[in-house]
Amino acid sequence: MIEHKKPRLKFNQYLENLYQSDKALIIYKVKDGYNIYTDFSKRVILTNKNINSFFNLFSYKKYQKETDLYIGFFSYEILCNILNIKIKNQKKLNFYKGVFYKPETVIKIRDKINIFSNIKKHNFKKRFQQTKILSPFKLNINFPKYKKIFDLFTRKIKQGETYQIKICTKYKNISTINPVNFFWKLMKLNSSPESFMIRDKDFSIVSCSPETLIDKKGKKIITKPIAGTLKKNYKIDKNKALKFFRSNNKETKEHNMIVDMERNDLSRICVPNTVKILKKKYVEEYKHLFHYVTTIQGILKKKTKPKDIIKSMMPGGSVIGCPKIKTLELLNKQEKEDRNIFIHNSLKSLKSLDWRNIAWRYCSSGNFISSNSIIF
After folding, report:
1. How large is the angle between the packed helices 143-158 and 324-334, nearest 10 degrees?
2. What is the rounded radius of gyration, in angstroms, for the C-alpha atoms of the chain?
3. Residue 84 within a domain
4. By C-alpha distance, which of 205, 186, 183, 192 is closest to 71?
5. Is residue 4 part of a domain?
6. Is the peptide bond before 193 cis (omega within 30 degrees of 0)?
7. Gap between the Cα atoms of 320 and 154, Å rounded
8. 94 is a domain residue
9. For 148, phi and psi rounded to 5 degrees?
């Protein structure tokens, strides 16, 4: 089961003061624990106009400190802009198109807690926010409107304009939430490997996903598309789940579509003949589910920049469908509300001095239509 080692730690007054303070912070799950980023010296609010200048912040200079990085999120609109895809007649949310932070303090929670900080004295202003549900959840689209889009996309698939497409639906309510408490409770229930939390002065994002879109270390770049999900029960083990996926025509074809697209995306930025499948069609076990996964690796071309990677790899197929550009165009014509953070969000270790190690994560939910199936 994909349950990374959970550090067993004693009470830590510094962390408790940080959690109960009004400081902006980011909690980021890693293989052997968690990283926490705070004391942000820079907060870059992204727009369609400044996105290129933001990417110009990064260079190939040597990475020297734990705090030499930016961490944050891109919105769906920013990614479409990078791909030169227009979004027409959508209801805009009163939310950021992306925010990136430059931390001056990094806390690494492993078997021990290590703090790397450029701050000499840490001051905390206490603020405790209790979680309260103030209104019931509502769906952003009713069934007749959803069915209309669904039927249209089904026709588009039959006509050959796309072969897999994911409709975005959102559940909304009014609540006051303590994001730190919410995140740690979520980690006890479902400690997915690609989890993160952002707490800022006027918003919070909590995300829990098993899928790694991009994991870049040096010149190597890896993506792990997931397509295929099976609910766990006491009768099904990992071997039986693998047999189910392999014998299920729908799951196999959907998986092949996404893997093919991700290989194609990597090929745009990698040295020819270096894109390889490291591990093909295997099962990862989680607390409540089995997932059907393939791991793909490539070697990046020389002078490949962060923007090149983002433009090629994002959005990933498992949150929109495929082929990418045509599917995005179809979605943008029919969806009436901005997706915003419904996409890959957290960007770890985009080094301000050396961006060699990068990982992107998901924040996603939705429904698939493909040439082989309909999934709700």
Report:
1. 150
2. 21
3. yes
4. 205
5. no
6. no
7. 15
8. yes
9. -60, -45
262: domain CATH number is 3.60.120.10
Of the chain, the percentage scoring pLDDT greater than 90 comes to 41
Tell me which of 83 and 342 has the higher pLDDT.
Answer: 83
Of 102, 44, 48, which is closest to residue 71 (Cα–Cα)? Answer: 102
Nearest of 112, 47, 92, 43 to residue 74 by alpha carbon: 47
62 - beta bridge partners? none
Question: Confidence class of residue 189 from pLDDT cuts 50, 70 and 90?
Answer: confident
Token pair for 297? 């690796």
Tokens linked to 374: 């309909």
Model confidence at 353: pLDDT above 70: no
pTM for this structure? 0.86
Residue 152 in domain = yes
CA end-to-end distance (rounded Å), the chain: 26
Q: State the DSSP H helix or E strand holding residue 153, giving kind and residue range, or none if neither.
A: helix 143-158
- Number of domains the chain contains: 1
Q: Are 139 and 170 in contact (CB under 8 A)?
A: yes
Q: What domain range includes position 165?
A: 13-370
Contact 343, 364 (CB under 8 A): yes
pLDDT at 376 over 60: no
How confident is the model over 33-75, as pLDDT tens digits? 999 999 999 999 999 899 988 888 776 556 678 888 889 888 8
